[in-house]
Amino acid sequence: QLHQTVKETHDIGILKKAVSHQLSGLVRAMDEFKKKEEEREERLQGRYENLIDKVEQMEMETLKVKSHMEEERLRARTDPLTGLPNRAAYDEQIAQEFERWSRYKTNFSVVVCDLDFFKKVNDSYGHLAGDKVLRLVAKVISKNVRATDFACRFGGEEFVVLLPSSSVKNSIEAMEFIKNRIGQTKS
Fold it and tell me: Is 157 a catalytic residue?
C-alpha cells in the first residue's frame, strides 16, 4: 500500500501524510504483535513453570515409592520374630555366595544350626517362652558373626550362617564359640 501511494501521489505534503499514516499503522501493528508475543511468552513461561512443578512432584512421589518399595523388600526379607534375614534373603545370599565361589574358588562355609529339644521348651513353657528363646539365640548369633558373614532364621528353630572365605576349621571354631555364648546366655 505504501508503494502504491508513492507511485500515485505527486504532492509531497500528501505523500508525507500518507507515509506517516502508513508508518503509524505499521507501528500499531508491530506494537500489537509485540504485545501478543509477550502474552504468549508469559503463557509459555507459566506452562513451563507448571511443568517444572509437576516434574518435581513426580520426582518426590518416585522417591517415596522407591523408599516404600525398599521398605517392603526389606520387610519381605526379614523374619518378624527375630529381626534376622529370613529364608527368602538366604536364597538370594546363597546364590551370590555360590556365584562368588564359582568365580574365585575361595572357601565358604554353610552352617545349619538347630536348637535341640526346642519343642519341649514350647510344650513346657509355652510359645511366648519359645519366641523369647528364638529372639535370644538370634541376638547372640548376630552379635558374634563377622560383618562379612550372613546369619538368618531359616525356619522354625533353624538358623543358617554363611561364612565367606572361611575354612572348615575356622567355621567350626566360630560356631563352637557361638554355641558356648548361647549356653552362657541368661534370659
Answer: yes
